[in-house]
Specification:
By secondary structure, this protein is an alpha/beta fold. It has 2 domains: 229 residues, P-loop containing nucleotide triphosphate hydrolases (Rossmann fold, 3-Layer(aba) Sandwich); 36 residues, no CATH class. It is 43% helix and 22% strand. The protein has a 6-stranded mixed β-sheet with strand order 6-7-8-3-9-10, with helices on both faces. Strands 2-1-4-5 form a 4-stranded antiparallel β-sheet, with helices on one face. Strand 9 and strand 10 form a beta hairpin. The N and C termini lie far apart (47 Å). It binds adenosine-5'-triphosphate and magnesium ion (MG). The site of adenosine-5'-triphosphate (ATP) has 12 residues, from helix 1.
Length: 279
């Protein structure tokens, strides 16, 4: 479980808090999506959960982040990284080795995965991210999207209890993005891995995440099931969150016929509602 209590963080030399009085509990086995406009504090909260803040980034840190009973501020980053795997927003920062296979091997060896298990884990991660054919390629020859998949594969190979992904599909086309989310869902369902994903593609989150947290100006302004959060579409649009068209559709339809319509989170639901209303 991740328990964030009264967390406030201000980057060194900054005049405003990047996070302000955050309280959030993420139970084991969650699949949480975090959304919010640029500068809301999404990356900062991800770094607090992974322990990069306060260990590797300077600033004023108040409150606490407790992961599986370990207070992040008192736990060495190397111990935290065994529990929490992070895919950074900037994947270039993440990949160290010049060849794909070495990048994956490094983590596996570093984590003390037994020799006989290494190949199995490597194959699993490469297959599930769809990059088996890239195993011996140099990183410099890969596209942005392929690098993103390598970063995700390296983490999945380690099978951490918690996965945090900061805009993991930013460089990916819709098909690949969907595959990555399907993979995250499988890891979540089959292995009970807690998934926290920061994502702009809200339709994907609607389909795969169980809960959503909305951030704005360093605060969590809403947290709940996907339906609960998307139910208040005007508030989301006010802060500049690009809402799914199907959710906007159900909200407009409700206004038109002056009836409470439950929010639609996919095209099938929107179609059903439209047919129902039109008789
Ligand atoms: N290293 C840093 N030093 C100083 N201020 C920072 C630093 N990184 C982020 N900030 C500031 O902290 C606030 C939160 O930034 P953060 O990167 O967490 O937002 P975000 O929601 O991830 O935005 P985006 O959608 O653009 O990725 C912003 O005001 C940003 O300018
Ligand atoms: Mg960010």
């Amino acid at each position: 479980m991740i328990r964030i209590q009264s967390l406030t963080f201000r980057y060194e030399d900054s005049k405003v808090d990047a996070l302000h009085d955050i309280n959030l509990t993420i139970p084991d086995g969650s699949f949480l999506g975090i959304i919010g406009p640029a500068g809301a504090g999404k990356t900062t909260i991800a770094q607090c959960i992974s322990g990069i803040i306060p260990h590797a980034v300077r600033g004023d840190f108040y409150g606490s982040v407790v992961i599986d009973g370990l207070d992040s501020a008192d736990t060495p980053l190397t111990d935290l990284s065994r529990l929490v795997g992070t895919v950074f927003q900037d994947v270039e920062r993440q990949i160290i080795f010049p060849v794909v296979e070495d990048e994956l091997l490094y983590g596996l060896e570093n984590f003390g995965v037994p020799r006989e298990k290494i190949e199995e884990r490597m194959t699993f991660a490469l297959t599930h991210t769809g990059i088996t054919s890239l195993r011996h390629r140099t990183i410099s020859s890969l596209s942005g999207g392929q690098r993103q998949k390598v970063a995700i594969a390296s983490l999945i190979a380690l099978q951490p209890k918690i996965l945090i992904l900061d805009e993991p599909t930013g460089e990916l086309d819709p098909g690949s993005s969907r595959k990555i989310f399907a993979l995250l869902q499988e890891l979540n369902r089959t292995y009970g891995i807690t998934v926290v994903v920061i994502e702009q593609k809200i339709m994907l989150l609607c389909e795969f995440a169980k809960r959503l947290a909305v951030m704005d100006q360093g605060r969590i302004i809403r947290e709940g099931s996907v339906r609960e959060v998307l139910g208040n579409i005007s508030r989301l649009e006010e802060i500049g969150v690009n809402c799914p068209r199907v959710a906007r559709f159900s909200s407009l339809l409700g206004e038109q016929i002056r009836q409470e319509i439950s929010v639609c989170v996919n095209v099938e639901e929107a179609e059903r509602e439209a047919r129902r209303v039109m008789g």
